[in-house]
Specification:
Elements: E1 3-8, E2 11-16, H1 21-28, H2 34-43, E3 49-53, H3 59-67, E4 71-75, H4 79-90, E5 99-102, E6 105-106, E7 113-115, E8 138-140, E9 142-143, H5 145-152, E10 158-162, H6 168-171, E11 183-190, H7 198-210, E12 215-221, E13 224-226, H8 229-236, E14 246-252
Parallel strand pairs: 3-4, 3-10, 4-5, 6-9, 10-11
Antiparallel strand pairs: 1-2, 7-8, 11-14, 12-13, 12-14
């Protein structure tokens, strides 16, 4: 398999040259998730465990390992994406021993689930539990928050990235137990447009953030983390759901 060298977050990794060329071009141009990568540079050098929920083909997980995460636990249920992730791991033998890939979706309750993507294609970064009844949806293995905590074990510090294309509304508040006192920082992506209406999106967002009340919220807008009292208040009551969804940094209060 031909490898391509890619610079990400100031580190170099190797990836399959025949998969995701345009995406890796975007990474190298610094146009992919700049706020997340900047945050990880500050959060991970101390050796924290990095939990990547919605890992796709592995860009964030590999970046986290390269930046100094002591261990990376990554979840990706899409079999095509997971296969590409494993290929990318194989190309980074210096990082692979610290990365555990779990080919499963995070769900609130045990048992198989169905996921799908617009157009029914597999391997894209936008597969979601919310599309489990659509054309081309398929069954995947799952892991519950309790099972994931058992996999994590007694890691003293945890950093979480959660980006599951709308599935976040289905797993909270059950997933809130992952955000225990060991998690001082997290990155959360919201996808309110995946829900049926503005009202349902606002209610779901309010419920989600209510289960994360121990954290201050910092909105990421235009690739930059911006903290304002207004956006925080809007988030707490669910009004960030439309149109202010998107990415958030969570910082646990002392």
């Amino acid at each position: 398999m031909e490898a391509r060298r890619v610079a990400i977050a100031g580190r170099e990794i190797r990836v399959r040259a025949d998969t995701g060329a345009r995406f890796w071009d975007k990474v190298e141009a610094g146009a992919w998730e700049p706020a997340l990568l900047a945050a990880l540079r500050g959060w991970l050098p101390g050796g924290a465990l990095f939990l990547d929920i919605g890992a796709w083909i592995g860009p964030t997980a590999l970046a986290a390992a390269a930046l100094g995460a002591g261990r990376v636990v990554a979840l990706e249920p899409d079999p095509v994406a997971a296969a590409a992730f494993r290929d990318n791991l194989a190309l980074n033998p210096d990082l692979a021993p610290r990365v555990t890939l779990i080919e499963a979706a995070l769900t609130a309750t045990p048992g198989p689930a169905r996921i799908g993507d617009a157009g029914g294609k597999r391997g894209k970064s936008t597969s979601s539990l919310l599309r489990g009844n659509g054309d081309g949806a398929y069954q995947v293995a799952t892991v519950t928050p309790d099972a994931l905590l058992a996999e994590i074990g007694n890691a003293p510090e945890i950093v979480i990235k959660l980006d599951i294309e709308g599935g976040e509304y289905l797993i909270f508040p059950a997933a809130a137990k992952l955000f225990d006192t060991r998690v001082r920082h997290a990155h959360l992506s919201l996808h309110p447009a995946a829900l049926a209406s503005r009202i349902s999106a606002a209610w779901a967002t309010r419920s989600l953030f209510a289960s994360l009340a121990a954290y201050d919220l910092v909105a990421i807008q235009g690739g930059i983390a911006r903290s304002t009292p207004l956006t925080t208040r809007l988030a707490r009551v669910g009004l960030c759901a439309w149109p202010l969804g998107g990415d958030w940094i969570l910082r646990r209060r002392p």
